[in-house]
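Standup notes
- DV: blocked on the single-chain target, sequence here:
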Amino acid sequence: MNYTDNGRNFFTETPHIKPKGAEIAETILLPGDPLRAQFIAETYLEDVVEFNRVRGMLGYTGTYNGNRISVMGTGMGIPSMSLYSWELIHVFGVKNLIRIGSAGAIQDKLNLYDIVFAIGASTDSNYAKQYHLPGYYSITASFDLLEKAKQTADRQGQAVHIGNVLSSDIFYNEDSTALNKWSEMGILCAEMETAGLYMNAARAGVNALSILTISDHIFREEATTPEERQTSFTQMMEIALELA
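- DV (later): unblocked, structure below
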C-alpha cells in the first residue's frame, strides 16, 4: 500500500531506489559519487535517515538549517543520471534537483577548485532523440535555481563562473581535437551528466541546476586526487545545501 502526502508518494519503490518508507525530500543534491553523498549526510545534515543503498547508490534525507533535504549518488554518465533523476521526479515527487559534481576545465581562465554554474549544457549525446523534436533543443538550467545559487555564492563570498558546459558520452575520445573544438565555442568545462538531468527536468516541468567543481584542467594536465574529489569540494556543497 502506498502512502501519499500532497501527491508525493513515500512508500513506492523502483528496482533502483527502495526507500522502505523513508522520506525523499522535494529538493535533492545529486553527486555522481555515492561516497560524496555519504560525506555530505554525515558532515552537514541532522536527523539523517538512509533511504537507499541499492547497487551501492547511497541516499540520505536529513535537515539542514531547519529545511528537509536529500542527497543521493547518481553514478557516471547521462544514462545513469537520467535513470535516477527520472525516477526521483516521476515516482518520488522531487521538484528541485541539484547536481554537485566534478568537471575538467577546457578554458585557461579556470583553475582547480573553481566553481562553475552550468547555465547550459552542450552535448554529443543522442538523449534528446526520444522527444522527436523538429529541430535542435537548447539545454538550459532552471533560472530560479541558478539565480538563488548565485545569490548564495555572493553572500558566501564565493567567486563562480557561469556558462555553457559539455556533457559528453565519451571519456576516452578517439578524436584528440574534440575538446579543442568545444573550447573554441566558449565551453567552460567537460563532464558527463548535466544534459540528461536538464532534459528530464524540463520535460517534467521541475527545476534542475548543475554546480560543478573543477577537478582537473585537461589542457594543463593538472588534477586533484579521488580522495580530494570525495571530501574537499565543500564550497560547492555549501552553496547547494542553501537551495533547500
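- Follow-up: The chain is about 30% helix and 30% strand.
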